[in-house]
TrEMBL record:
The keyword rRNA-binding belongs to this UniProt entry's keyword annotation: no
Organism: Streptomyces niveus (Streptomyces spheroides)
Protein name: Glutamate synthase subunit beta
Keyword Amino-acid biosynthesis: yes
Source species taxonomy: Bacteria, Bacillati, Actinomycetota, Actinomycetes, Kitasatosporales
Keywords from the named record: Amino-acid biosynthesis, Glutamate biosynthesis, Oxidoreductase
InterPro entries in alphabetical order: 4Fe4S_Fe-S-bd (IPR017896), DPD_II (IPR028261), FAD/NAD-bd_sf (IPR036188), FAD/NAD-binding_dom (IPR023753), Glut_synth_ssu1 (IPR006005), Glutamate_Synthase (IPR051394), Helical_ferredxn (IPR009051)
Length: 486
């Protein structure tokens, strides 16, 4: 155990954020560089090393949290990194982007603030990179088997790295011009600087993984031909079809899906563009959708100089404490103030958009909304609550409905879908097509980064067993596993 009295003597401290007026002028990560290291060992010491560490159940990866907390407390960063990487290929991604269901399941959180597990995780991996502890791990021998991975998001990258290290020759196909999937173009720079992706890609290249960008399976390469070329295929193409809002005025200029808006801002940071073709500068911005993608739109609009930012959510505002029907250790629905929300703007709950209005040139100018209440789980408009708000740029961040079928990938493989429109798979992540597997959002539906990495690792085990007859690869979850919620 790290510090037997740590949870009694040390209060919770988290990463220090840069001042709002400073960070909204740039696109760097919002946290003060180096602010965690002076406090993180004591924070790790708050871990009680519980007899039954429920944080393991809260984390789909089954991260060995008490073990690396102990090493971090003792400042044995090399051992901490080894334990962290035992279950997680990319802790610098999850340490920055995961909403930390492990902290919701922390036993200390029953009656105290949880251990800052996420902050400890990111401190360990950042220290590991600084110390040179993160090195390529190429296989000792090659199996002679080849695998194609379609998609380079967290699920695809995790599957590719696991299979490469198992000795297979792996090629990752990505339709965008850079590797990373939504990590690259869906996550703003201020949440995770892309240098973290770049150095992981270089590690994977040194291990032997091949990358093919600007290649869309289904359009550029026929899926059936790809299957014949490789011994196995892993589909990790994500759930990239955005949920639309079919109301009058939707066709007006200035109304965009979040994934049309966010990638352009990232391309500016990559140096591909000088100015984003879709920008919030000087405009009244409305973000429809109250989740993490919506918050990303809010933070991006602030940095582009929006005149105002309003975020709409159809659901009621969550409470700031656990509701009685969401007991520990479930992941509770709580009112969350992200770094983007700290920077300004208005958040409106329990409202639904009825229609948009535009000017004579077809540009959106306003949004009409109404308050709603829920009856039998469905939103019902409340009479007399209609109002209008200015809207010169609208981003739709209402989630995703499934994997892309327009590019031909699903049809060309001949894949079966489940009742929710996801690619169906069995207990080994295998689809109905021999040798074709699916991992991540393409099979699970829209989910969290930590679930994507867990799926990639688990699918890799299924592929390895298919190719060799047995596998020692770590498989933390089954396709049917779900978050611990109520």
């Amino acid at each position: 155990m790290a510090d037997p009295k740590g949870f009694l003597t040390t209060g919770r401290e988290t990463a220090e954020s840069r001042p709002v007026e400073e960070r909204t002028k740039d696109w760097n990560e919002v946290y003060v560089p180096g602010s965690l290291l002076p406090i993180i060992s004591k924070q790790a010491g708050r871990c009680m090393d519980c007899g039954i560490p429920f944080c393991h159940q809260g984390c789909p990866l089954g991260n060995l949290i008490p073990e690396w907390n102990d090493y971090a407390y003792r400042e044995d960063w090399t051992a901490a990194s080894e334990r962290l990487h035992a279950t997680n290929n990319f802790p610098e991604f999850t340490g920055r982007l995961c909403p930390a269901p492990c902290e919701s399941a922390c036993v200390l959180a029953i009656n105290q603030p949880a251990v800052t597990i996420k902050n400890v995780e990111v401190s360990i991996i950042d220290k590991a990179w600084d110390n040179g502890d993160v090195v390529p791990r190429p296989p000792e021998r090659l199996s002679g088997k080849t695998v194609a991975v379609i998609g380079s998001g967290p699920a695809g990258l995790a599957a590719a790295q696991q299979l490469t290290r198992a000795g297979h020759t792996v090629a990752v196909y990505e339709r965008a011009d850079r590797i990373g999937g939504l990590l690259r173009y869906g996550i703003p720079e201020f949440k995770m600087e892309k240098s973290h992706i770049n150095r992981r890609i270089e590690q994977m290249r040194a291990e032997g993984t091949k990358f093919r960008t600007e290649t869309e399976i289904g359009r550029d390469i026929d899926a059936a031909k790809l299957r014949r070329r490789y011994d196995a295929v892993v589909i990790a193409a994500g759930a990239t079809v955005s949920r639309d809002l079919p109301v009058p005025g939707r066709e007006l200029n200035g109304i965009h899906f979040a994934m049309e808006y966010l990638p352009l801002a990232n391309k500016v940071q990559e140096g591909d563009l000088t100015v984003a073709p879709i920008t919030a500068e000087g405009k009244h911005v409305v973000v429809i959708g109250g989740g993490d993608t919506g918050a990303d739109c809010v933070g991006t609009a602030h940095r582009q100089g929006a005149a105002s930012v309003t975020q709409l959510e159809i659901m009621p505002r969550p409470g700031e404490d656990r509701a009685p029907n969401q007991p520990w250790p479930t992941f509770p629905m709580l009112y969350k103030v992200t770094s983007a929300h700290e920077e300004g703007g208005e958040r409106i709950y329990s409202v639904s958009t009825t229609h948009f209005e535009g000017d004579e040139d077809g540009n959106v100018q306003s949004l009409h909304l109404t308050e709603v209440e829920f009856a039998d789980g469905r939103p019902v408009p409340k009479e007399g609550t209609e109002r209008t708000i200015p809207a010169q740029l609208v981003t739709l961040a209402m989630g995703f409905t499934g994997t892309d079928q327009e590019n031909g990938l699903v049809a060309q493989f001949g894949l079966e879908l489940d009742a929710r429109g996801n690619i169906a798979r069995d207990a080994d992540y295998a689809t109905n097509v021999d040798g074709v597997y699916v991992a991540g959002d393409a099979g699970r539906g829209q989910s969290l980064i930590v679930w994507a990495i867990a799926e990639g690792r688990s699918a890799a085990r299924g592929v390895d067993r298919y190719l060799t007859g047995a596998s020692d690869l770590h498989a933390p979850i089954r396709p049917t596993d779900r978050s611990l919620t109520v």
